[in-house]
Design goal:
- The chain has about 220 residues and is of the alpha/beta class.
- The protein has six helices and 13 strands.
- The protein folds into two domains: about 140 residues, Rossmann fold (3-Layer(aba) Sandwich), CATH 3.40.50; about 70 residues, ACT domain (Alpha-Beta Plaits), CATH 3.30.70.260.
- Strands 2-1-3-6-12-13 form a six-stranded mixed sheet, with helices on both faces.
- The longest helix is centred in the N-terminal third of the chain and has 17 residues.
- The radius of gyration is 17 Å and the shape is globular.
- Bound molecules: ribulose-5-phosphate.
- Ribulose-5-phosphate binds next to helix 2 and helix 4.
């Protein structure tokens, strides 16, 4: 079992019968979602998922997890991945361009568990650029603001499509390197106050628990 798989499996064990689960996006949550499907099949637990992307929606369907929406249900527990995790459990997310819906679902959850391999733990956020979902028409003014804030913004380009990545919501994704981020709480607010920014990938003060896959086994860190 690889480290992401270990974390995903351990998180699936935390799920209780009857819960509404926020289904995060990415390669680590992939293992979690599949394992929730296994528990439905083998143990008969009755749960529903609220996907955070087309990826997690399709995987939930494949895994026979019934899906619902924030309109219909409150989220008991959300399980999501991360690109960086600092000692105060502030995160950078959005490596998969899904951070807008992830933040909405994760924020509304009663409990938020982050799953990752231990390479995602950092002393200070900022090596991974901060993803921003933006309205395409706002690209020039948003770039100008980000440069004034000391960042080096880039439009994220697609790998198997010509041109930019288009998010599940039909928007551009910008990756903005700030270097070391000393105050993620403030930066999260500042970025969202730029007109045209839909959401940014800093998730400050939201996490209840981190489940890490490490070479010494699964480690659970609580905030
Ligand atoms: C998607 C995300 C992912 O959760 C994050 O990029 C981690 O991905 P992975 O589990 O593949 O390392 O924020 O927008």
């Amino acid at each position: 079992m690889n480290l992401k798989e270990m974390a995903g499996f351990a998180a699936a064990e935390e799920i209780k019968d009857g819960q509404i689960i926020g289904l995060g996006t990415g390669s680590t949550t992939h293992y979690f979602i599949e394992q929730v499907g296994v528990r439905i099949k083998e143990e008969g637990i009755s749960v529903m998922g609220i996907p955070t992307s087309y990826q997690s929606f399709l995987l939930a369907k494949e895994s026979n997890i019934p899906v619902t929406t924030l309109e219909e249900h409150d989220v008991d527990i959300a399980v999501d991945g991360a690109d960086e995790i600092d000692p105060d459990f502030n995160l950078i997310k959005g490596g998969g361009a899904a951070h807008t819906l992830e933040k909405i679902v994760d924020y509304s959850a009663n409990e938020l568990i982050i799953i990752a391999d231990d390479s995602k733990i950092v002393d200070v956020l900022g090596k991974f650029p901060v993803p921003l979902e933006i309205i395409s028409e706002a690209t020039k003014p948003v770039f100008s603001e980000l440069k004034d804030m000391g960042a080096d913004p880039q439009i994220r380009m697609a790998k198997f499509k010509d041109g930019p990545v288009i998010s599940d919501n039909g928007n551009f994704i910008i990756d903005a390197s700030f270097g070391q981020i000393d105050n993620p709480i403030q930066l999260e607010k500042d970025l969202n106050s730029i007109p045209g920014v839909v959401e940014n990938g800093i998730f400050a003060q939201m996490v209840d628990k981190v489940i890490l896959g490490t070479n010494d086994g699964v480690k659970v860190l609580k905030s």
